Amino acid sequence: MREHWLFDKMYSAYASRDYNPNKNGKFEAKDLLPLAKENISNLKDYNYFTVLEDKDGKAIKFKDVQDIASEFETPPPTSKKNVVIYAVPKGVKPDDDKTLAGTQQIAMDFTVEFTEPIDLRKQTATYRIYDPTYYTDMTHYDQHPVTFVSDKDNKEITACHAKVEFPKVDQSMIFSATALDWNKNAPKDFGYYFSEKVTLSCQPPQ
Amino acid sequence: MAFIREGQHIFNDMILSHMQAIQQEHTLAAYAGLMLVGFLYGIIHAAGPGHGKVVVSSYLLANENSLKRGLVIVALASLLQAITAIVIVLGFSLILQATRGEAEQLSGYLEIGSYVLIGLLGIWLLAQGINTLRDAFGMNKHHHKGHQHSGGCCGHELTPPASQLAGNKSLISFAAMILSIGIRPCTGALLLLFFACAFDLAWPGVLATVAMAVGTAVTTGALAILTVKSKNLALSFVKKSDRGMLFAHAGLRIAGGLFIVLMSGLFLTAQLGDEQTQGQSTPPLFKALR
């Protein structure tokens, strides 16, 4: 599974100011990959914010992430969320000296490879991508949140489909969330209750 | 739920687009827009944790009948919270080149200081209440002369309700009230200022922060008005005798004092518990940026 995260303007602005390993005062396209790699290594303890389960709710394990990439991206106009996710990268080759311009934001891509393949024709699987510390809000793109691609010819598999379900949050959770200031630690795995659940299937829809 | 989170998104977006507008052109309209957003953000933000709403209203309930003074407390506390945030972000981060993490840590310590002060204020209020209670029972009459008190805070003269609370002691409690709330920086202002710094717009950020303080004062002020009005209404029913009034005031002060002490204790333990996990509390996606 390949994840594409688009960071919001605020994060992009922070990163382009505060992440500056070569001390030239500028955040350039060549700084994108080191930042993405550092982020990925910091996310390791958090399972890369990714939780996969088979239809029985058993965790699907995956290896360390691969093929990390990062680029500047102009977000689709409909999207105003913090982090948006879609499954296939754009594969833009960044121009090394370019800096963040205009409406552009930082995007990051990586692949999680399952230790065991799952056959979506035989069973469904679900995943959630969320920040367990409830600091970052992560939602899917409104349009085409998930794309299924054949690893042989890179063509889209139209028989498969994904259902993104918005969380139903109960009132007491909302209350705890409202009472939580941004500089306070959230209860353990608090983000789970606010995460979108995506069901993947290659079975014909009922 | 959706509303609150969407609301935060909308404010983030509004603040962001106004900052970008200022970045592009330094027009009066762009500044005015940012300040307006700051003001609105303040009104909403003050409904969240912090800002001393509970403490101010308990204090007003227990010890203050003058609405004007209550509003002054609220306004100055809001302003001081904004100033603290400005000093932390601009002074500490920009001038001393401290990282955002260090600035956040400093604000954590100030928060602890704030809760300690609030606790002391609660104890003082409690002492006032006990003293008023003694008055109500007529127990203080014989102790008046030659009785020295080392603490200096819990004097033994009669503390009748309201009218005589305008002395030095009440001035100290007045200042302590403002200080105890105000030294805890407003977290919304911190966020706004960090954001402004990321855009190299420190001064517009300061303006927006001040506008935001006005907004938070509006919300907490409304609560203060409600508190004092309803208290005075309630007390108008016991105005039958001086003694009944003394009992009522003693009760309010003791209950208010106990409540404030309890609250500050709760917040303090929560904050100290949080402090121990400071190392883990940096959100994973922000570790690379420190």
SSE topology:
The complex is a heterodimer of chains A (206) and B (290).
Chain A: E1 2-6, H1 9-18, H2 29-43, E2 50-54, E3 66-73, E4 83-86, E5 105-111, E6 125-129, E7 138-140, E8 161-165, H3 171-178, E9 197-201
Parallel strand pairs in A: 4-7
Antiparallel strand pairs in A: 1-4, 1-5, 2-6, 3-5, 6-9, 8-9
Chain B: H1 2-24, H2 28-45, H3 53-63, H4 67-95, H5 100-136, H6 168-182, H7 187-198, H8 202-235, H9 242-276, H10 278-281
- Share in β-strands of chain B: under 5%
Main beta sheet of chain B, described? none
> Can you give the mean pLDDT of chain A?
76
- Report helical residue fraction of chain A: 10-25%
- Measured distance between first and last alpha carbons of chain B: 31 Å
Tell me the total number of β-strands of chain A. Answer: 9
Helix content of chain B: over 70%
Report a brief summary of the structure.
The complex is a heterodimer of chains A (206) and B (290). Chain A has helices at 9-18, 29-43, 171-178, and strands at 2-6, 50-54, 66-73, 83-86, 105-111, 125-129, 138-140, 161-165, 197-201.
